[in-house]
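ping. complex inputs:
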Amino acid sequence: DSGVTQTPKHLITATGQRVTLRCSPRSGDLSVYWYQQSLDQGLQFLIQYYNGEERAKGNILERFSAQQFPDLHSELNLSSLELGDSALYFCASSVSSGMQYFGPGTRLTVL
Amino acid sequence: ELKVEQNPLFLSMQEGKNYTIYCNYSTTSDRLYWYRQDPGKSLESLFVLLSNGAVKQEGRLMASLDTKARLSTLHITAAVHDLSATYFCAGDSNRDDKIIFGKGTRLHILP
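pong. complex structure:
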């Protein structure tokens, strides 16, 4: 158990809908990262937050947004969902930019 | 833009043998990461390599970084079946802190 929690574990929704994925980092970790893993695209870095501020941005679509709250948990919002957004979404946390600890992931299925 | 190439992409080896996975990257990178992923599971961080000549070891796995050659290696010593997994390397772009992943090396160790 990495100490990083993600909810929900599975999510099934329809095209055009909006969903929110939630991540709670390990106690004491200030950085949160979001990743997407799909068969087509492999592992992609989406975004990193550090202590509430955006630190680095990857290939995150404009339809996606994220934030980190004062209690350091983070949410990833995915809107106007398309079939191609079906993937595993992982979050990870770290103290700053070192070793990352991954949550179990959220499997998103868009029908 | 940083590009990360791993090879081989698939490796089948006998228990007890040694082998190396290679990770080449295209531009300077602040950090080089190695991860392990078991089928259907999340990622586990193995190593973070920060500087030229860095070498880290954990059990039968040893990772090294040569920033001049833009090459990191993950060496497996006397492989055991439990090491069967997919291994990813990733680089952290100096320019914009984006994390870029290789395609992964699927390692299958035959008993």
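The CA atoms of residues 61 and 71 of chain B lie 17 Å apart.
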